[in-house]
């Protein structure tokens, strides 16, 4: 039995870090301080965060049959995540994100590769039925999954799972009408403040709004609760929102209330920023609980 089945993007992040990471065209070469190939993809990072917190976690995503795909699946498996449901396409390369990190800000360039090949039909139903909760991340990148997502949510509920969705940012081409419909169908919707302002989440039983260093709020039809984020020395905020999701879901799956889950999520998100990339500084449950403010 799995506590959590995470479905979504699976691609490495190539992080380029330096004081000046803005490229110059005209065949200009510039030097950066650091380059690291790390686990990437919002869904994959969330799965790693959940496993680090002690949840039995499975992951389904699409990669290419190449070195980057092998890197991702091996890295997830090394963290105790079941990746038996992941498909490797022989024709399409694994997606990759190049993240240019300068100080507290970053810019990202993503080649989707195999990410859009993931479909609802490709998700192993035995794996689905063996899970307590389904979390879908990077809605806007999942072109192949989106047409079957409403039916997948309904099927998950019928099988006794709860469902959460984190759309992440829209690089263009996302289906906002479908997203608004899904908001009323899932059990938990994770958004940032800009998404919350733009999206009609009417009917969603629990909307969780991430506000970065200002913490987060959770909104139900009855009330709104807030939680502060602990202060940490930020090295890189890549994947902080995904670690936040993992913390919130871990608390809810343990039977904790919304306020307690929000506080744990804020701690998990903040602590994940202590190192480069989205996974190297992810907190254990003991660390996260010790950081709650």
Please provide a written account of the structure.
- The chain is of the alpha/beta class and 293 residues long.
- It has nine helices and 14 strands.
- It has a single domain (2-21, 34-291), classed as UDP-N-acetylmuramoyl-L-alanine:D-glutamate ligase, CATH 3.40.1190.20.
- The strands form three sheets. It has an eight-stranded mixed beta sheet. The chain has a four-stranded mixed beta sheet with strand order 3-2-7-8, with no helix packed on it. The chain has a two-stranded parallel sheet with strand order 5-6.
In short:
By secondary structure, this protein is of the alpha/beta class. The protein has helices at 42-52, 67-78, 125-129, 149-158, 176-183, 193-198, 240-253, 258-271, 285-291; strands at residues 2-7, 13-17, 34-38, 57-60, 62-64, 87-89, 96-102, 105-111, 131-137, 162-166, 188-192, 207-210, 216-219, 224-227.
* Overall strand count: 14
Largest pleated sheet: 8 strands, mixed
Q: What is the ordering of alpha helices and beta strands?
A: EEEHEEHEEEHEHEHEHEEEHHH
- Strand % is 15-25%
Task: Quickly count the domains.
Answer: 1
Proper CATH architecture: 3-Layer(aba) Sandwich
Rg from C-alpha positions? 18 Å
Largest beta sheet: what is the strand line-up? 4-1-9-10-11-12-13-14
- Kindly report the name of the CATH homologous superfamily: Ribokinase
Please report the first level of CATH classification, the CATH class.
Alpha Beta
Overall geometry comes to globular
Give me the secondary-structure category. Answer: alpha/beta
* CATH third-level topology: UDP-N-acetylmuramoyl-L-alanine:D-glutamate ligase
- Output the number of helix runs: 9
Overall pLDDT? 95
- Proportion in helices: 25-40%
Task: Enumerate the spans where pLDDT stays under 50 for 5 or more consecutive residues.
Answer: none
């Amino acid at each position: 039995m799995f506590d959590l089945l995470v479905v979504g993007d699976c691609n490495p992040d190539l992080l380029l870090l330096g004081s000046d990471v803005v490229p110059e065209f005209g065949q200009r070469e510039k030097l950066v301080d650091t380059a690291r190939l790390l686990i990437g993809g919002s869904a994959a990072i969330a799965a790693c965060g959940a496993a680090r917190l002690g949840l039995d976690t499975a992951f389904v995503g699409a990669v290419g049959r190449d070195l980057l795909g092998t890197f991702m699946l091996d890295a997830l498996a090394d963290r105790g995540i079941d990746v038996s449901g992941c498909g490797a396409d022989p024709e399409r390369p694994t997606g990759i994100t190049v993240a240019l990190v300068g100080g507290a800000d970053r810019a990202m360039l993503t080649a989707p590769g195999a990410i859009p090949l993931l479909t609802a039909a490709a998700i192993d139903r035995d794996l689905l039925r063996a899970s307590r909760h389904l979390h879908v991340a990077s809605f806007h990148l999942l072109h192949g999954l989106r047409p079957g997502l409403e039916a997948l949510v309904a099927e998950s509920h019928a099988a006794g799972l709860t469902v959460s969705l984190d759309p992440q940012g829209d690089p263009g081409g996302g289906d906002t009408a479908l997203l608004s419909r899904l908001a009323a169908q899932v059990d938990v919707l994770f958004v940032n403040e800009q998404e919350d302002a733009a999206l009609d989440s009417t009917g969603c039983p629990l909307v969780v709004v991430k506000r970065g260093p200002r913490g987060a709020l959770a909104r139900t039809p009855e009330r709104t609760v807030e939680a502060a984020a602990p202060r940490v020395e930020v090295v890189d905020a890549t994947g902080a929102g995904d670690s936040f999701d993992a913390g919130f879901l871990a608390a809810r799956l343990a039977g904790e209330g919304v306020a307690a889950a929000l506080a744990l999520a804020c701690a998990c998100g903040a602590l994940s920023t202590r190192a480069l990339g989205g996974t190297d500084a992810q907190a254990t449950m003991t660390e996260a609980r010790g950081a709650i403010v």
